[in-house]
Write a structure and sequence with these properties.
There is one protein chain. The chain has 15 helices and six strands. With about 350 residues, it is an alpha/beta fold. Strands 3-2-4-1-5-6 form a six-stranded parallel beta sheet, sandwiched between helices.
Amino acid sequence: MSARARGSRAIAPPGVGTKAPIAVLLMGPTGAGKTDLALALAERLPLDVISVDSAMVYRGMDIGTAKPRADVLARTPHRLVDILDPAQSYSAERFRRDALRELADVERAGRSALFVGGTMLYFRTLQRGLARLPDADPELRARLDARAAREGWPALHAQLAEVDPQAASRIHPHDAQRIQRALEVYELTGTPLSALHSAAPEAEAPLRHWLKLALAPADRNVLHQRIARRFDQMLEGGLIDEVHRLHARGDLDLHKSSIRAVGYRQLWPHVRGDVPRSAAVQAAIVATRQLAKRQLTWLRAESGVSWLDSEDRGRYTRALEQVTSAVAGGNPVTGYAVP
């Protein structure tokens, strides 16, 4: 079903007329225009923006993450942006703690939270809590790395598909970090990672309603064009210089979660002198398209989502009406002009 068709069946905002607070989740694939829509909503409504992006947390990683410009962040602050050095690690567990802390702070101020981003695992963790997973096992990880060096990560992905097909369907055959973790969890517990996630406890946040909006183009080809165009703009804006600066630090490599972010991971071999620029750029665009596909897969499995076509000029009005009704509990604002 297309995003346009899904958007025609907009879901009424939950929780209107109840005392439970409402938080807005603005989700969507990379390159769909979520930031622009979030800024438009925050300018009109008492909303504080909380970023749901596993790469925007890092300082100095601005261009490749499509982080809002400094002047935009000064006008409309985004919480959970620029909170870590790229040498530090970040996780869904830490995001949940940080997000619930920021959410409580926003609500104490009498405002509502607008969570915006594309890290779907973080959105799920925010709503449903965390599965009880085993700690990392360095010895087991070393064995998996050794196997991957001999056989390749696609071979280990094929093994994962046998023991946990649901997890494998969401993990790219070359996503070493996630393949390793899924196999590690299965080896340590005897239970598929997907089953453990399904049994995750409810989040400990106070009762609230989530207004879930998804922004995506109706045509997948349009999204691919947007991704390629945006990556060209990143290159023109100095993305390769940004990756060079990160590489020159000397304390970062592809084992760091920051450098494994899409775009940075593919350009890293180029700045090391191992891969031509053209090949690295093409690999980054392909990887970004694959990321968008995975994000859409997650979104389709999410219940209670109201879809907005990112190419529809009326998307701002429809989003504003839904959020106004949910947050204010009053009459929707109409006639919002598209910037």
